Amino acid sequence: MSLSDSFSFSARRYDFLTRLNPGYRRELRAAARQLAEALDEQPPERPLIWDLGCGTGLSTRALLKTMPQARVVGVDASAGMLDHARAKTWPEGTQFLQERVEQLEDNPAPELAEAPDGIFAAYLLRNVPSQHRTEVLASLQRQLKPDAPLVLHDYSISESRLAQVKWTTVCFAIVIPLSALVGAKTGLFTYLWRSVMDNDSTQTVLARLQQAGLHNVKSSTARGWHRRILHTYTAIKAGIRP
């Protein structure tokens, strides 16, 4: 079973499991606020935001709570996750599209015809093969409007032994047993543990963003038990708007 198929199979349990993660939605909203603050430099009236790796729409909801006037295009590779996202109630201007982030630049879908005012990607880059991550970021940089922000939100623990121990304990004592209890694919959550253990360091992510041609690159860590485990990265596409 492919990764996107595993996400599809577990989609109906996903919102429930994330609700049990203390601080998960709070930190999504905090990351969305960082995107909104970056947009405040040159605020469009109704900004177009691409929400990449949107899943069941939890990140989409966080963006719209932070920027109610935004138009959001949620993109995900998992048909099952998108089915659950589309089944929810959304304001006018919210759309969802099935596509892999690696293929976005070549996709002629009308939802992608307009360059975005900002891109938000939560828990996405870690699922892109390591050798393609800088290339994917460079592609996103090309698709952004000039002076537009990119915000990444993801786990990274390679720089902290304590964070590695904490992450492993949470996964094997809580997350994986709970996923089995509710009938989700435990293999997906074992993959979650491993993908975070193997993920880029924060310094590597910052370097990738710079190599992709983005500027004003910075990172911050989350609060609570996520501290030094969950990070938000912001970057700007340099340029002059016409």
Characterise this structure.
With 242 residues, this protein is of the alpha/beta class. It has a single domain, classed as Vaccinia Virus protein VP39 (Rossmann fold, 3-Layer(aba) Sandwich). It has 9 helices and 7 strands. Strands 3-2-1-4-5-7-6 form a 7-stranded mixed beta sheet, sandwiched between helices. Helix 6 links the parallel strand 4 and strand 5. Helix 1 packs parallel to helix 5, helix 3 packs across helix 4 and helix 7 packs antiparallel against helix 8. The longest helix is centred in the last third of the chain and has 21 residues. The chain is globular and about 45 Å long. The termini are far apart.
Task: Please outline what is shown here.
The protein is of the alpha/beta class. It contains nine helices and seven strands. It has helices at residues 3-9, 11-19, 24-39, 58-66, 79-86, 133-143, 161-181, 186-197, 202-211; strands at residues 48-52, 71-76, 95-98, 118-122, 149-155, 214-221, 230-237.
Strand order of the largest sheet: 3-2-1-4-5-7-6
**How many helical stretches?**
9
Query: From the helix content, strand content and strand pairing, which structural class follows?
Result: alpha/beta
CATH superfamily: Vaccinia Virus protein VP39
Radius of gyration, rounded?
17 Å
Which terms would index this structure?
43% helix, globular, 7-stranded mixed sheet, 242 residues, Rossmann fold, alpha/beta, 9 helices
